[in-house]
Amino acid sequence: MSSIEVIGGKQLKGELNIQGSKNAALPVIAATILNKGTTVLKNCPKILDVYHMVKILKELGCSTSWDGNTLYVDSRNAVVTAVPEESVTKMRSSILFLGSLLGRHKEVTIAYPGGCSIGKRPIDYHLKAIKKMNVTQEFIGDNDSMIHCYSDRILGAEIFLEFPSVGATQNVILTAVLSEGTTRIFNAAREPEVIEVCNYLIAAGAKISGKGTAFIEIEGVKQLHDVEFQLSSDRIVAGTYMAAVAAAGGDVVLLNTPNLHLESTVRALRRTGCVIETTENRIVIHSRQRLLPIDVLKTQPYPGFPTDMQSQLMSVLCLAEGESTIIEDIFESRFQNVNDLRKMGAIITLDNKQNKAIITGVRELQGAVVDAHDLRGGAALLIAGLAAKGKTIICDSTSIERGYEDICRDLSAIGAQTRYCSENAAG
Ligand code: EPZ
Question: Which domain holds residue 170?
Fold first, then answer.
């Protein structure tokens, strides 16, 4: 099991290019099944979650290859309709193959994706919506662990989502693209990653309107065609590195940033006193003074403050001069870092009834041996380590590689003293 070592106290300076978006890549990779042809996917991040989705494509009969960050997919022979159970339970985003396999074959067998450390992650919204499209759903396997969905004709329907779920919105779109008739989604998710998968599908010949709004309409077409598509850069990776500068101090230029999709993150970091200049696809961030607290920071569906940036901002606010409150309104257990941050000297009290964390900023954190509980939590502990006095070891850091191509390479390029090490380095 790998770990990451960081020696804190170094100001960050320099330029950094931002990788392609993980949460855009995953639904687009699932969507490549819908076109009985080829997809060329540019700016695709080389991360564990992408490799996992590509492995499933091959299990479904696709052929794939890489050239740098360009992924080639040929799904002409994607005849398999069942996703291996082990593949789904290992990574829940594979549930997006539910919609694309249904759309392609009108049949799919897929395991119930497990929860993870941040929550139970159910898929009731997905199933309730797709059932309305003339799709029969049966639960099979040991203790109903698998879902078998099928239909002779997938029909367009009016879908009202009780919550603007990103995955449920994407799965309905994937199911509807090759269906008969028109599907209307009310209360759709507006995340940039929903827009991205719509852009990919439209480029391949799908008829979709309303992307990025709460009302999306999909008119079924007979087939899609080959497409070359460039993924946007990752707004959460960009936000993570901005939070690193906020915590450690310094002056950094981020290149190829998706500024339009970073509004709420930029606003939050400006509230801590960071000076941030945004031009077309560059962000310059300066952090030279003691950070200011944020009285209340609440996670919300897009365009609100993203839950995927919550852990990173918690690390930053541990160092602010005063008291901040974070309310996590999207996932039920996304305060996994609190005990690790306390080990580093942070003062945080939890009011679990409301998923509220009250952070009393301290002047300095101390390095410690901590554990990465999930992808963003692990990155957030690395941010805390950059600002802490002495050495921090983040154990079990593999989860960070799920979403960041090479976080040590990136942060070292702007002056951080950080490296991958073996577990026993914790000493
Ligand atoms: C996507 O997850 C992202 N993952 C998550 O990023 C992100 O945190 C989340 O959207 C919210 O923005 C990918 O895009 C691969 P949801 P998703 O469906 O689609 C509940 C990361 O770190 N819910 O919008 O699973 C659910 O439990 C990851 O990159 C139901 O109750 O998110 C959660 O509380 C973490 N029933 C809330 O809705 C359902 O059927 C939001 O979930 C579906 C969801």
Answer: 22-230
